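Sanity check

After download, print the first record. It should look like this:
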Amino acid sequence: MVQNGVIVKKRIPWIDVSKGWAMILVFWGHLSGNGDNPWFPDLITSKKVVYYFHMPLFFILSGLTFHADGSFKEFVTKRVRRLLIPYYFFSLYGLGKVVLSIINPKAIDSFHGELITSPIAQIIEILFGYQGLWFFWALFWGELVLYWIYRCCKKYLPLIAAASSLMWFYCGTCNTGFAYIIKLFPFFFYTVFQALAFVSIGILISDFLKSLDRVGALQMLLVSGVMFSLLSTLLLVYKQDGMQKSVPAIMAAIVGSLFVVAFSILQKKLATIEYIGRNTIVFYGLNGFSIATARAVFFKIIPVSIIAENVYLQVVAGVIIVIVSCVICWLATLIINRWLWMCIGMPRPMRKEMVV
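Expected structure tokens:
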């Protein structure tokens, strides 16, 4: 579509809706934080189930709109602007925790998070991509590799997707040998396999998904729902770790993602979820801050002991905290889109866009 002589890519609503639901799943998965989790002890299983597919879903959705356009220099420049600048901008939250750990260490303890290292170590880890918003770096590395694969050997994409999927599972579950070595590389380089695997899968199934009508989407919803239920149950029941779980884990990631896509295609206009999907950079970048803030406020009002003793109260509390977190991110999105657009790699908004 051309507007005022400028080519504007038309957005596909169900892709934005799918991203919105994926973002909601990220919030839910982060409810319990990364530490000892005194708040939601009975929601651990739901977190595990969400983790089976919610990030692969983001990569698959990225693959649906992937194009290796322009020169490699132009391609890299766009990805730096859209992925790496937001990584460092939103990492300011991590640096804020460093400052807080110096000023008031007890406040950090109240988050029940992972062990905080020294302030200098924290800063180095953030700057060199050893912690924090890994998705930005993963997609950056994955798309850089895919640029050349897409241009030079696209016919091997299914093989590359399969091999990368196995490497993703291996690196994610093993801490010895090659997996240990590659995790020492800076800038989350080891996550390239997850991005490469699932963005490739998104590219491969893009035409199929975009051609689905409502009947086809309903069929995919039912089939993927049944398959994901069986696979996630298998992964939960089978406790032993190892590569023997790789195929069920990869399949669960794919069919879980397809379930969300089918669900999104079948829905009618969902302005709120679609808005979240269009602004996932901000919502993802601030998900840790917003969840921690909403959770702290909620449990200042209602004691943890009351919620933690009842699973239904935990579900209700979780939903409320996710909603409040989304409101925080929505307010931040208004500010960032209006005044800090360059920090998320966006062009200066036109006056009309500012009003909207």
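If your output differs, re-run the checksum step. Summary of this record's structure: The longest helix spans residues 311-339.
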